[in-house]
From TrEMBL:
<keyword id="KW-0812">Transmembrane</keyword>
<dbReference type="InterPro" id="IPR044215">
    <property type="entry name" value="PIG-H"/>
</dbReference>
<comment type="pathway">
    <text>Glycolipid biosynthesis; glycosylphosphatidylinositol-anchor biosynthesis.</text>
</comment>
<comment type="similarity">
    <text>Belongs to the PIGH family.</text>
</comment>
<keyword id="KW-0472">Membrane</keyword>
<feature type="transmembrane region" description="Helical">
    <location>
        <begin position="86"/>
        <end position="107"/>
    </location>
</feature>
<keyword id="KW-1133">Transmembrane helix</keyword>
<dbReference type="InterPro" id="IPR019328">
    <property type="entry name" value="PIGH-H_dom"/>
</dbReference>
<dbReference type="GO" id="GO:0000506">
    <property type="term" value="C:glycosylphosphatidylinositol-N-acetylglucosaminyltransferase (GPI-GnT) complex"/>
</dbReference>
<dbReference type="Pfam" id="PF10181">
    <property type="entry name" value="PIG-H"/>
</dbReference>
<protein>
    <recommendedName>
        <fullName>Phosphatidylinositol N-acetylglucosaminyltransferase subunit H conserved domain-containing protein</fullName>
    </recommendedName>
</protein>
<feature type="transmembrane region" description="Helical">
    <location>
        <begin position="33"/>
        <end position="55"/>
    </location>
</feature>
<feature type="domain" description="Phosphatidylinositol N-acetylglucosaminyltransferase subunit H conserved">
    <location>
        <begin position="115"/>
        <end position="183"/>
    </location>
</feature>
<dbReference type="GO" id="GO:0006506">
    <property type="term" value="P:GPI anchor biosynthetic process"/>
</dbReference>
Amino acid sequence: MSSLKDYTLTLSQSIPSVVKYGISNKKNDVRSIVLETSVKLTGILMATAITLTWLRNPNSYYQDGNLRIMSKGISIASEIKTSWDYLYSLDGLKVGVLWLLTILLVLKRWYIEESFMALQSFGVQLSTSSPFYLISLWSKPDHFIPVNDIVDIIIHEGFKGFQVIYYMAIIVKDQKELTLVFPSLLPRRKQLERIWRGSRRCLYRDKPSRLEIPQIVR
């Protein structure tokens, strides 16, 4: 359980009235970097092969309504030359789907980043990274909560499956459910307490009575 929550915590504070905390499960070890790089390079080679082959002679893919196997292909790399016949045997729609899946493989983000930004006198903004680079279609929209709607920011103890975890949440006025902070990663209590204190110092700089230890409900 401990190794699964060895997250990286980052702090950005250019001015005292704005503080941003980021949590990421990105792995920086050599094995993870090599694996991700290898997969992306393979995807780039496949996408390049499909694109260049089609650009060479797109009309030659079809003959009498059926896909014709080309007698000579463009060799992008010797390692993938044997895949030409399989590639040419697919119909146009399947080739397009294969190209799209290859691009998604290249753009796939192999880690999650979540952030919590506190703006003094304004409120807080929660955000979660998109599963894909350059594509925001599947990303969750940033969630801004005005400071006047924030009843409290708390740390609770709860259950996830059979595990006891701590999570940070925001009590919002006129809202029945808690708004979770870092809902995908659920970092450790030590990191949550640091974020809790820092965000309160920013939001309630003029209200010292609210700068107390985290609330933990058992």
